[in-house]
Each structure stands twice: as C-alpha cells, then as structure tokens.
C-alpha cells in the first residue's frame, strides 16, 4: 500500500494536528496486524481517546467523529501513517 495516498487525501488542518501529536509526546500506536495491504492498529493521542484504525490498500477507517461521521482522513489515521513511515525508513 502507498502510505502517501492517505496524506494526499487529508486536509492540511488534520496533518497539522497529527504532527503536533508527535511534538507533544509520542502517540501510542499498538499494531494489531500488519500485512502487505492491511494494517490494523490502536492509536492513542493526547486527548486520551483510543481508536481502532485500519488501513487497507487505498481506504482508511477510524472510529472517531472526523472519520466515521465526516469521512475525513483524521489525525489518528495520519498518526498511524507517520508511525509506519518512520518505522519503515529508520
Ligand atoms: Zn480518527
């Protein structure tokens, strides 16, 4: 899967929120499953929520309001994407 696709589909505001999570304190990302075209993880951010996030091929989902209700690529999805990019490019 091309992780950059998710960044490209997101808003600048949500990208900013996700970047701020990393500068505040590293968000907790617990990978549940990782395959070539599927990643499932729990993402915890500074406001204390713990969300199940799934990336598969070119779709991404999260249980938060921004994604589940508004259909946005939310900051939790982006936190997972940034985490994976960092992990894959040490
Ligand atoms: Zn979310």
Q: Can you put this structure into words, describing what you see?
A:
The chain has 90 residues and is of the alpha+beta class. The chain has one domain (3-88). The chain is built from 4 helices and 4 strands. A 4-stranded antiparallel beta sheet has the order 1-2-3-4. Strand 3 and strand 4 form a beta hairpin. Helix 2 (12-24) crosses helix 4 (75-88). Bound molecules: zinc ion.
Please render the helix and strand layout as text.
Elements: H1 3-8, H2 12-24, E1 28-35, E2 38-44, E3 50-56, E4 59-62, H3 65-69, H4 75-88
Antiparallel strand pairs: 1-2, 2-3, 3-4
Helix pairs in contact: 2-4
The structure holds zinc ion.
Which terms summarize this structure?
binds zinc ion; 4 strands; alpha+beta; four-stranded antiparallel β-sheet; 42% helix; 90 residues; 29% strand
Short description:
The chain is α+β, with helices and mostly antiparallel strands. The protein has helices at residues 3-8, 12-24, 65-69, 75-88, and strands at 28-35, 38-44, 50-56, 59-62. It has one domain (3-88).
| Number of separate structural domains | 1
CA radius of gyration is 12 Å
SSE run:
HHEEEEHH
Q: Helical amount among residues, as a percent range?
A: 40-55%
Gap between N and C termini: 18 Å
Q: If you average the pLDDT, what whole number results?
A: 94
């Amino acid at each position: 899967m091309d992780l950059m696709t998710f960044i490209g589909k997101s808003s600048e505001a949500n990208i900013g929120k996700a970047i701020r999570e990393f500068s505040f304190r590293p968000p907790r990302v617990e990978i549940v499953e990782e395959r070539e075209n599927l990643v499932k993880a729990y993402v915890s951010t500074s406001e204390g929520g713990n969300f199940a996030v799934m990336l598969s091929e070119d779709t991404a989902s999260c249980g938060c309001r921004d994604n589940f209700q508004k259909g946005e690529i939310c900051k939790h999805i982006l936190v997972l994407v940034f985490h994976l990019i960092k992990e894959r490019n040490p």
